[in-house]
Amino acid sequence: xxxxxQAFVPPSFQALYRDARGRWTLPLRDVAARCxxxxxxxxxxxxxxxxxxxxxxxxxxxxxxxxLQGLLQPESGVSPEEARWVVTRLAELLNWPxxxxxxxE
Length: 105
Prior knowledge:
57% of the residues lie in helices and 0% in strands.
């Protein structure tokens, strides 16, 4: 895969696929594909989660927790580590507080 064809993989996602010595545990093209899938999933879930939060009045943390529980199911197609990354990214996109994110204070 040439440099021109490589998608940006944020450091937070890279950490999911690097070993203790910093080596990739999957080929970079596979990591980039997994990252794109997870980013697309987070983007796709934003409107649904915002709707649940506003329409039903569910607490933001509860909505994120429910998303995580759903993504942790084997049929979700993402690993547990990816599921946590998706929910953290979702919180970023929605500008919601999340225990995994640094506070904005």
